[in-house]
Amino acid sequence: MSNSKEADETVSGDATPGTRPALSVLDHAGIVEGSDPGQALRDARELAQNLERRGYHRFWLSEHHNMRAIASAATSVSLGFIAEGTSTIRVGSGGVMLPNHSPLVIAEQFGTLESLYPGRIDLGLGRAPGTDPRTMRALRRDQTSSSTFPNDVQELQAYFEPAVPGQPVRAVPGEGLRVPLWILGSSLFGAQLAAHLGLPYAFASHFAPSALYDALDAYREGFAPSAQTEKPYAMAGINVCVADTDEEAERLFTSMRLSFLGILRNERGLLQPPVEPSTLDTMWRPGEKPQLDMMLRYSFVGSPETVVAKIDRFVADTGVDELMLSSMIFDKEARMRSYELLADAYGLEAPTSG
């Protein structure tokens, strides 16, 4: 098991070291059955506002394309809407799939966000397409574009540095702003790249958990200090679903299980209302339940006390510096209440004014 490391105060926007890691939220601006993208984005902003009041550290949106249930495809535009409605919580991408884009365009987009909302913007970067092969072609993404990801990250990083005399290409806005970068991944590749570049690392254990411990070890062992980060700073994704009772939380969590079942079957649709957990037992095809249980291994579901105990064990095992929480709860009020119950049980404190 990996050893716990104290949070690094040199990481841009990291949390104050304490007895427990900071809690942050990865949202997808999910479109539920009966809703639409505009409402999903307004719900996401309302959620971010509530999380800010409750003391959550970051609010990130994901980049996915051609998915009926996700409204955050235009990630930088969506983040501007979130940032405009909040004032203290950090706002960022979890992440921008960099091979889908020109590094210069991303530098300009996030340079604009940093110019408008200084000191609150994170730029998480991934190399996956975030979509299917046909949509990749529609994005004008080359099949080999992921192979240039390390160079693209460094090119993007350079655009955020102060311009030098005679520099022919400059990001405006962007140059000199040094927007903090994160490497996102679910394999050793991202861990090793983050270590090599001296960047904070976020592992997607909320849906691809198998390499979590190996990736954390590779990141920590190979880490080289940089101007942005002097010591390793690791974040891990987990799924949470909290309700007043374990039974009610398990029922609410069926919406997420149904969503992932649709992914397994390549039948992606809008987020569905919860069902009784026993209903799922009548739906499985051969091999589906073990595969789904593996994907959702790090899903902590139950009452506040149940979930906090599971989180504490996970942190003790992994030594992560921060947790990125994901939740697919159909009802907006139940989703907000889940995060509120967890904030109270975990001991989060609201930000102080001024």
UniProtKB/TrEMBL annotation:
<dbReference type="GO" id="GO:0016491">
    <property type="term" value="F:oxidoreductase activity"/>
</dbReference>
<keyword id="KW-0560">Oxidoreductase</keyword>
<dbReference type="InterPro" id="IPR011251">
    <property type="entry name" value="Luciferase-like_dom"/>
</dbReference>
<dbReference type="Pfam" id="PF00296">
    <property type="entry name" value="Bac_luciferase"/>
</dbReference>
<dbReference type="InterPro" id="IPR036661">
    <property type="entry name" value="Luciferase-like_sf"/>
</dbReference>
<dbReference type="InterPro" id="IPR050766">
    <property type="entry name" value="Bact_Lucif_Oxidored"/>
</dbReference>
<feature type="domain" description="Luciferase-like">
    <location>
        <begin position="35"/>
        <end position="321"/>
    </location>
</feature>
<feature type="region of interest" description="Disordered">
    <location>
        <begin position="1"/>
        <end position="22"/>
    </location>
</feature>
<comment type="similarity">
    <text>To bacterial alkanal monooxygenase alpha and beta chains.</text>
</comment>
<dbReference type="InterPro" id="IPR019949">
    <property type="entry name" value="CmoO-like"/>
</dbReference>
<protein>
    <submittedName>
        <fullName>LLM class flavin-dependent oxidoreductase</fullName>
        <ecNumber>1.-.-.-</ecNumber>
    </submittedName>
</protein>
